[in-house]
Amino acid sequence: MRRPQRRAMAKQSRAKDGDEIRLLETWIDAGKPLPGTKPPPPSEDSSAANARGRARVVVAKAADGEYSDYGASTRFDELPLSTKTKDALRQQGYKEMSEIQRAALPHALCGRDVLGAAKTGSGKTLAFVIPVIEKLYREKWSQEDGVGCIILSPTNDLAGQIWEVVRKVGKHHNFSGGAIVKRTGIEQEKERINSLNILVCTPGRLVQHFDETPNFDCSNLQILVLDEADQILDHNFKSQVDIIISQIPKVRQTLLFSATQTKSVKDLARVSLKNPEYISVHEQAITATPDNLEQCAMIVPLEQKLNMLWSFIKRHLKSKILVFLSSVKQVKFVYEIFKKLRPGIPLKCMHGRMKYEVQQAIVAEFSESTSVLFSTDIFARGLDIGNVDWVVQVDCPESVALYIHRVGRTARYNKKGKSLIFLCPEEERMLEKLKATESKIPINVRKPKVEQLEQISQNVAAVLVKFPNLQQLGKRAFVTYLKSVYLQGDKEVFDLSRFSAESFAAYASSLGLPVTPKIRFVSHKKNVSKKDMEDIGVKQMKHKAEVIEIKPQVKRDMLADDGPDDDILYPKKPNPDANIYGGLDEILSPKVPGADTHMEAEKIEELVARPLKKKKLKINMHRPVGTRVKYDDEGNAIDPLASLAEEVGPEDVIHKDKILQRYAEMLREMQEDDKEDKAQHKKSLQEKKFEKKMKLKRRRQEETDAVSDDSGSESDRNTNTSSKGKKKYFNNSNDDEGGHAAKGGDLLAQQEALALKLLGKMHH
Ligand SMILES: Nc1ncnc2c1ncn2[C@@H]1O[C@H](COP(=O)(O)OP(=O)(O)OP(=O)(O)O)[C@@H](O)[C@H]1O
User: Where's the motif Q motif (predicted)?
Assistant: First the structure.
């Protein structure tokens, strides 16, 4: 009995949907905005109360055959959307639309191709997810219809995140779908992929299905979305995107979104957009980054970056910090080292070599707790983590666009956030690019206060000796960092030849490495001339804080928070509550009691321009006694202080006093060892000399004996005797020698006795 009842209900529901779809189609068609138009600025009568009333009016009018011009809507419930979608949006707390949603949704809902650009965290995901769901709904799409929409994302994590949004907004609909990511394994995916209506995946995974999955069919595809479109259309994904485009129908709707949109006609031609709507809602904005984001840059020499990062973290123990590094090896190394040094805040790391599930777990943990997450650029685009306080870029981003995406992990959707970037003096050109008017990035250049910088390289060295596998990791981190710089395309910014051999050595030393690893791809023959190096130094010295034009309000806040003498790391008036979003200084916490800071009071400029000591890692042949260099199994020199870590417990690793005390003891031991070594060496030299002398004597004696024993022919004997005797001992003008020879046996015995006596004395 139940079945017919259920069937009847389903029929009723389908009929209801059918009515709604007809209504929506008429409404969409009648009220669609003119191509190329933007919504008017929201007015007073679009306030929440009025809007609610108007939405009712709109629906009522729709029933009478009159439809609103939804292009001017400010709220989701004013749009021609299905009740199911509206209910889901309301349940998720989405009421007012963001700028990009207001501008893009009306065009996308009426089936137009859209090329949308808006700042990071401004709500682009809903701007494409809603049209996807609505399109399939209006097409009465069901499981049997197969793949109706493909959303491409550059990373698995982002695909997972987008799918979550689709799932939430489409929860009252009956579509199937999923994020096609590594998690399930390709074989399981092959079985279900044809029954999925909405696929969210990376280009690579989709191509794999085109290649390997029998009967994988996208011939019914209605809508293609490229999130982070500029990245998906760049050369890294080129061949994959070309394959995808060749496998899907030409007649479809295409939506492209990114915070940094591609303007290349060539790129756009590849995805064959039809009369696309170019929607760049923040084109006229003063900044390309979120208004609530405060951005700082610091010029930090390569070898000081780790110290700077450590010092920063130690002062922000109550913040959620996302740290970008350029390679997996670096992420692993810094994470492992800092974990051993225990800064007093939970640490996490994330990179592309991790399993998808692990990445997801880390993202979930990071979302919920105050911690530091070290990450590669896998996290740079799209990921939406709430309440990130700081984004710190330890390594220079490859482009201004990547900078914008990285900093965009904070200050999302009207929230406040801060970012800090360390740039090497050699990468100064990037600072110029960021500050260029067309970049529209209001970045403040700050001077690091050297006297407040904690020097941790000795502690890092100590950790490395205690954990030899970290030394390997450190070496690899060093090499991959330089490799990443070497491989960067923008040679104006990334030019290894600007770095001196000394700076490489100092960098290796800062990573705790006793020797500078070999870098095959770098030749210092091509190094800049000494004069050029000096010029760079002079330029660094001239670095002055500058502010480019930004929104008056943001500017006022910044100025109010930071006096000219203030340092981003060290506020004048420490505020105990570092987590309150306020001005710049409020975010910065006071120095943690007990944190050790060993740094001479040098001037800021000295940090930047201090000439590096050439002898830093060279073995000094004229070293003072007791500073003998030790070697590891591979023949690499070990820093004497680093070698101490073998003898201290893990809890002692970072106590400098203990290390220094042990170091002094070790010096004393070494001095004593050296004294012993010297005596031993002298003794062995004397022994060798004596032995040599003895050998010589013995040989002479044997030769003398041989001559006297000679029993050859008479004539021979005479000849030989005379000649040999002349040559050797007899008839020799040197009487002494003749005398020696005569007394050879006695002398030998005497010398042996003397030698024994001498040796005996030495032993006492
Ligand atoms: N209309 C809205 N009302 C309230 N919150 C919203 C609205 N639209 C989006 N959000 C929220 O804003 C945050 C950022 O949205 P989203 O991830 O779509 O940004 P984005 O523009 O895609 O950023 P990115 O360029 O970094 O990918 C999300 O947490 C989302 O839930």
Answer: 74-102
